[in-house]
Amino acid sequence: MVAGVPNATLNLIDENRQCQLTTHGFEGSDTARSDSMCAVRFTSGEVTYLPDASLDLAFAFNPWVTGLLGRVRFYFSAPLVTPQGYALGSLCVFHTERHELTDEQIDRLKDLAQVILALFERRRQARANAELAAEVREQHEQLEVAHADLGRAHAERAATIVELRRSNSELEQFAGVVSHDLAAPLTVVNGYLELIEERIARNDPESARWIAASTRAVGRMQRLITSLLTYARAGHAPCRPEPTKLGDLVDQALNDLRGSRDGATVEVPPDLPVIEADPTLIRQLLQNLLGNALKYRRPDRPCHIEVSARPDGEQWRIAVADNGLGIPKAQRERVFEMFTQVDPASGQGHGVGLSTCQRIVDRHGGRIVAAETPGGGTTVVFTLPMRTRAAAPS
Fold this sequence. Notes:
Elements lengths: L6 E7 L3 E8 L5 E3 L15 E3 L12 H4 L7 E8 L5 E9 L7 H47 L7 H25 L1 H17 L6 H31 L5 E4 H11 L8 E3 L6 E4 L1 H17 L8 E9 L2 E8 L30 H11 L4 E5 L5 E8 L9
Parallel strand pairs: 8-10
Antiparallel strand pairs: 1-2, 1-6, 2-3, 4-5, 5-6, 7-9, 10-11, 11-13, 12-13
Helix pairs in contact: 2-3, 2-4, 3-5, 4-5, 5-8, 6-7, 7-8
Keywords: Kinase, Phosphoprotein, Transferase, Two-component regulatory system
EC number: 2.7.13.3
InterPro entries: BphY/WalK/GraS-like (IPR050351), GAF-like_dom_sf (IPR029016), HATPase_C_sf (IPR036890), HATPase_dom (IPR003594), His_kinase_dom (IPR005467), HisK_dim/P_dom (IPR003661), HisK_dim/P_sf (IPR036097), Sig_transdc_His_kin-like_C (IPR004358)
């Protein structure tokens, strides 16, 4: 073994117990978390290395040391903590005799723990992709049912066919993203992990860069998955209009974006109206618009955003205006299309946010447009009927 001792175990630790998932040199079992040596410090993310555990007060009276469950002397534990900060368990090696490790052995054990953690993460991502693929299949099945219903709805046939064709095209794009764009980062992760496995024993500094590149790829994939699922749900989730204070929805959206508001001022009038709309969908709409205003700010002046609402006949006209980079006039209609970005090279966003806004406004029977803010920037205006009749899911 790497450590030169006869006993090793991979532990998973939850709120109440420790499960010795796989062991070497002894028969594994489940024990109470309160009896676990690895549970003492594993949430800190720091390695524990004790040539003689009986000399450390934190472990001297543990049943694995005293003889109740075992007579551990040498003890080494490397926590398994995900990049998101979730502590899963530990990689542990131990012996009934005092034992010391070299620096090289310690480094190799740490590297082995990282490889195990990466394999757990890869399996988690595979499950997430399977769930996403199942959701796409379900959406296609719903679309096929909708096509079958067209034969029983001749009076609305023309308008329904237009909407279903657009929905079908978007769902096909969604399926394409799942099968290609979302699979590509996983391929990167797998490739780098294979390289790490081949060269892990060489203590090569390049390994750290490979791990970092893999982590960034997984992050991109997760953000894209989140955006696509939000878009899909905006068209398929039930739309339940109810009297809702627009000011409360703005406050909730800003609270969700508080980490992005550094240096920005947001002007919200105190007399925003009560609208009749689905609060969950409109909150998502406002969060997308405010998030874009905060993200695409100009570097040469402080970010300023204004939210306003006024009656216009039998509808509300609601606006979110900023003084940011703005949208070129030729692209102000196209930005509401799926995967359209004003500046793809900037690497900001995926071109899904405004498409989601378009879907939400359509569900409420309104319209949404982008215009220029006087003095520079973007003003997005959307309308909501004062008495909303929610559209059927796309």
